[in-house]
Batch of 2 targets.
Target 1
Amino acid sequence: MIIASYIYIAVRVSIPVLLGITGAIFNEKAGNTNLGIEGMMYMGAFAGFYTAVATNSVILALIAACLFGAFGALIYAFATVTLRTNQVVAGLSLTIFGQGIARFLGNTLSGAKGESVRIPDAVTQKVNWKILGLKDIPFLGRALFGYDMIIYLSIVLVVIAYFYINKSKTGLNLRAVGENPAAADAAGINVSLYKYVHICIGGAFCGLAGAYIGVVYLTTWGNNMIAGKGWIAVALVIFASWNPLKAIYSSLLFGFTSLIALRFQDSPISPYLLEMLPYLLTVIILIITSVKMKKENQQPASCGVNYFREER
Amino acid sequence: MQCRILSCIAFSILNICDKGDSVNNVLFELRGITKLFGNVVANKNIDFSVREGEIHALLGENGSGKTTLMNILSGIYTPDSGTIIINGEEVTIKSPEDAIKLGIGMIHQHFKLVDVFSAKENIIMGQAGSSRRNQKELTKELEELSNRFGLNINLDKKIYQMSVSEKQTVEIMKVLFRKSKILILDEPTAVLTPQEIDKLFEILRELRADGCAIVLITHKLNEVMEISDRVTILRKGESVATVETKKTNPKELTELMVGHSVDLSIDRPVVKDKTKDVLKVENLTIYDEEGVKVIDGMSFTVDGGEILGVAGVAGSGQKELCEAIAGLHPVADGTIEFKGRNIVGLNPNEIINLGVSMSFIPEDRLGMGLVANMDMVDNVILKDYRRQKGLLLSRKPARKMALKMVEDLDIVTQGVQYPIRLLSGGNVQKVLLGREINSSPQLLITAYPVRGLDINSSYVIYDMLNEQKKKGVAVLYIGEDLNVLLELCDRIMVICGGRIMGMVDPKDVTIEDLGLMMTGHTYSQILAERGTGQ
Ligand SMILES: Nc1ncnc2c1ncn2[C@@H]1O[C@H](COP(=O)(O)OP(=O)(O)OP(=O)(O)O)[C@@H](O)[C@H]1O
Ligand SMILES: [Mg+2]
């Protein structure tokens, strides 16, 4: 039984990372290295939280989170695609901006005496709506069917993202843009449009990731809610080799290493060290596994370089 | 008038498929095109028109604006002024997408292909509306197309695994698949073997018969004479003339291009005191990455003060030979002696310091030892900085050298402080060569130095090589144009499949002999046959 609950916890921790990785993949497939993932997650966390508190509606909260995340992405897209500013700078600014605005607006949420705001129980109940009876199957029940509905929604979205990027016609064009925008352009693909659209889709995924953390996982407003999960997502893109399906097990890697910290909670090891552990382990595994990769599984070749048609 | 009628008749006899009566409407026309990059005038008030069923050659020196003009037609660049007229109607082309919709297809000087995609994915990407078509149908259509034009292509092969000519084939398939009416080919033949060029020309003739308007950019005048109907010549961004191919000749074309009369013969100065055996290669055997033997027991020498030419079909081991001498490729067996010292096993840097210099112009011409984003001065320093002492680099000597190169080689650039990538393809190449030659080596290895260079620059390069030879430098020249090899070199080594077929004196052999040797006949066989023939 204890194993089942470990799995349960690990999966819940990994979902926002999974969504973050997928968001980052959309960006990179469009040829943009976006370091603003963390920022967009913060934006989504705030929008989701605020809407949930204000409307008691899960659906509206999720939509608001996606839109606000996409809005952050839109600013980034405008900066890099239209104004052609440096992608690293634009991404870092987005992270700082997203974090700042979420904290600023989030603090207006809390009551006068600084008491913490919580997600209304009605919302939590709706989120945790379960398929009747299934979760009572011993062991498997909890590990497979015990989750909130947003987890299933996320996995479905990630699988759709995979098929969209790798199997569809538009996905082919998107990959062409990320690999060689000049070739895509010459083939008649509207490079700027593809970049804008997919950077924003990526932003929506990040927004959703933030909403999951805020509305489902933590349920109490705090200033440090995302706590670097966006950065982990940026790093794990490499481990997932730019493939949303592989992002599923990459994010689980993070989820399970987090368990270790949990497991040793009561030991004399400093809690700060323990909190650091999943991040550290993730990075180490990343380095070991990503040394050699097939050409097809590498970063899209134009990542980091803005495209200007008349430039050569 | 009579002359015109005659040529019309001649024309329709030549082109059986041409209907003869409606002699060739103008399919597209560029009027008064001007394009500036910063303060570089790339195109200046150019008028250019091509008819239906015509192959129109576009000639001009490196940097004269050929690529720019065609990029304007295909929507990559927007002109600063001028109009484009297609089928009698004025059109605006804002993007490649617009151009494609108007039936314009371009094969670019540097391939526009996605490396990690298969041939098929490259062909269908960006196509509107083909999403609903099923894969099988698509594959069938592509196969029919390649059969019809006799193209040999593996549709599922990834681009990065392809040779340059295969990539070229994919580019051709791309425009064929889109059924472009207007076809632009920017130096398609620079990297192809003679056989491949013949095949390409066959396709172009077929498309001409179908009524396409074809623009062919090339620096090879024999190709212009062979296949084009008319020629337009650009000089320094201006259109200087449009002439009918039948009424002109290579000499006239060259003069129009350069703006003054030129001498099209190559010198072969005699050097009296040669240094013996500056380079001595013995029993050299090399395997490539896949373990295939690419150089098979080669032995030869190069003296100081001579140019040894190497002739061979592309891929006969030229690249590996160059790389082995420069220390960039492992040697399986044999020795390479430079001035009596075995240099096998030394690292490239040590070999450079001994006085060996190599410049290899790869088939794709990009990524060839220059950093595109740096200016000329920095690129010169790149090769030179190890010789400088101290912590900080001195840019002065490099700057001087860069300026000298611009002057000597007629490099078209706004100034030595501009990034290399802004130069036209040919000019980039001159920078590379100039740098190698200027590092005053004792052994100069140069492979395909005139690939993609205009005639005038090619002759400048030949002069530079002769200059080096007179200084007593040993020159190993790997070339493509057999005529040039015959005129320029003191000796020619013909290789085939990594073996030496013959070491000949250019005065004793003909092009045909070289051709035979390149395909695997030894010189002694040829001599024997000649003996019995007489
Ligand atoms: N995108 C660009 N930015 C800046 N300058 C450019 C650009 N494209 C072309 N130029 C400049 O315009 C001039 C014409 O270049 P273009 O490439 O059209 O020459 P070309 O005739 O095709 O030469 P080549 O035979 O070497 O290919 C050159 O001086 C080049 O440096
Ligand atoms: Mg050109």
Target 2
Amino acid sequence: MRRSLRGVPWSLLVGALAMSLWSACGSGGGEEAPRRAALIDMAEYVIIPNYADLVDAAEALADAARALEDAPTAATLDATRDAWRSARRYWKRSQAFEIGPAQELRTAAQIDWTPIRAARVESAIDTDEAIDSAYVEVLGANQKGFLALEYLLFDGADDEPPALALLGGDEGAGRRRFVVALSENIADQARLLLDAWLPEGGDFLYQFSEAGRGSDVFPTLKSALDEVVNQMTFLAEDIADAQLLNPAGRDGDDPSPESIVTFRSANGKRDLIDGMFSLQNTFLNMYPGAAPHSLAVVVRGLNADTEAAIRASIVRSIELAAALPEPLQVAVVEDRDQVIEVQAQAKEAMRRLEIDLITILGSTLRFNPSDGD
Amino acid sequence: MPDRFVVALASGNDSADDAPASAAPGTTFGSRVSARLSRPVAIDSLVAFRIAYGAITAWASLRYFLNGWIEELFVRPRVYLPFFDWAVPLPGAAMYGLFAVLLGLSLCIALGYRYRLAVAAFFVGFTYLQLVDRANYLNHYYLISLVALLLLVVPAHRSCSLDVRARRVARATAVPAWCVWLLRFQVGLVYVFGAIAKLNQDWLCAAQPVRIWLGANVDLPLIGSLLQSAEVAFVVAYAGLLFDLAVVPGLLVRRTRPLAYAAMLVFHVSTRALFPIGVFPWLMIGLTPIFFAPSWPRRWTGAAPAETELVADPWPRGRRLGAALLLVYAVLQLSLPLRHWLQPGDLYWHEDGFRFSWQIMVMEKYGRISFTVTDPATGRKFAVNPSDHLQPAQLRMMTTQPDMILDFAHRIGRRYREQLGRPVEVRATSFVSLNGRPSQPFVDPGVDLMRVDSSQPRPQWIAPLNR
């Protein structure tokens, strides 16, 4: 009797361990572990489709620009502006996963450098060289990309000639050509980005999804996850601080609407919301339908309250931002309290990512950095 | 009383120390305990303990050089948050020199060279380092300091030492049993209070922070994916608790001792593989054999037991005073880890009584903090980013530890007061996540920290934990 009783705890322990191992091994039936599955779905459901949409939208922008070059009318200019907004939308929605190829290709510097220099853009137009994507390629970052296009497509201050007037006629031919070249270059950059991810191209998908087990880029799965999470927190900080707090005025300072990057096109609110959507899409792996695995699913498995808090903070940020009057540069002056409310919510989302997400994924552990417990 | 005397030791009887003390009829409990603690036992396990301790602390000191920690933790910081204001860091080169000295002293301890001097100097030097900055506090460094203090009172150099070889001290092959029991007591406390610390809701009901820590080890070959499972986290959490609860009794009973030590090896090697906890596992693996029968090294090395042994009496004079001091020490060690029970609120949140209480690997806490200095005369506010003043490791620790937050707030407050020539107010905005919970406000943002004294109950200025 005593002998058998003595054996019970060990039997239970071994049994429980065996059950757990069986459960953990067998529950997936060959499925990937949650974190890897989240990365794979992120690439397949969000990153690659987003970049594919960016390519399509950038090519549509180039088509619209060519139509504008052929016939510089208000209609073709409006169509080009719309195409610009559409392409920019997919670019902004890719910012939460601006990792790997986007960093290696320096895509942000190629197509979204801020600020651009108007005089340098004008000097780039005034050239004897053939103006095409290859010409744009070698220009400085402050002469090209979305914001150089914005400068050419949208009207400036009241004392400046309207964009259409500058683009029209023989005098505007070089300008129109440069618009086409800039648009084509954005499309080229977008294709490079997409190709870098696709298996038939640079196959960064493999590097990402095989992190820690064959990837040359990510020695561990954790390093790939950390890279995404860091980029998400960086974007959240940019939204809360650069895109909202700076224009609304820090610490009671006067608002500075001119600090909105897309002030000229009055696209600030859309940039803001697309950045927030980028965070949501990356956290939930939703583009537009939700993938079965995501960072949200991983976090939910560890603490459902924390997952709900992170998700709610992003969703609420989007709701509040969507309710802002347009354009943002007017809202920061006339509806500053409302903008501050959005900023506070965006800051909460930033905190949720910087603290809650990082902690629960173990991206940073409390162990003393020197040695310990 | 002579400082050594000849007695007959139950030679070759490894379990002599485990046998019940023979007591004459009518003797009191106290006298029976006293008799048992005074009984001579082989010095060998004490010597092994000394050698292991010296070797591991030498390795710990060397790691500071190899990992660049002297520069990072003791030279580069511009602000320190010490336990006492007098514990200021030495100038850079001297700090490197101190670590070199500690390395040498560790080797002296291991070799038994000028043992008393070496262990005393090591205790002072190593403890001083721990006092320079609270950010560097580690449970096992606290243990290293305490063990150095205890080694100072036990004659662990009376065998297998250069001191004996040089005839600075007489060789002994036995010591009073209390010398061994004192070290067992100290090492055992780590496990016992480590187990008590795990008896909390997060550990028992949510397997936290184990789930977070195991999940972060997703890249481990073979078992990485298993470690993400909740079931495995619970098994590990409860196995860890059972281990901590059972290991000391297991080591004290001769029949279960091999199994307990084997379990301890598995436990510490596993934790070392999973978590970056430095020398802690090796320290415990090296020190725990003190629970073995005192002559275990002799048995393992096959050395023949001597029939007549010399007992090294560490306290030839003042035995009563020494015993009283040890009793005070023991009471202190038993009560310090329990002092947090006198504090309201959640220990892991307010951390009042967290240090020096063997709260080992029981929480994952992370947060962000910023400070605002207000000049009440003008209403002007100054935002203070602590990362402008603290190193990343210090910032990381300060953000979640109230006493460090208060110390830092007072430091920046004093600096602004000197600049402005009048008192200022300092407030903190902070959010902290504990064991995977959603982050929540930590320091009460309405409280002027310049008006908070370190003795003030923390619930008065730390927001309550929303469980």
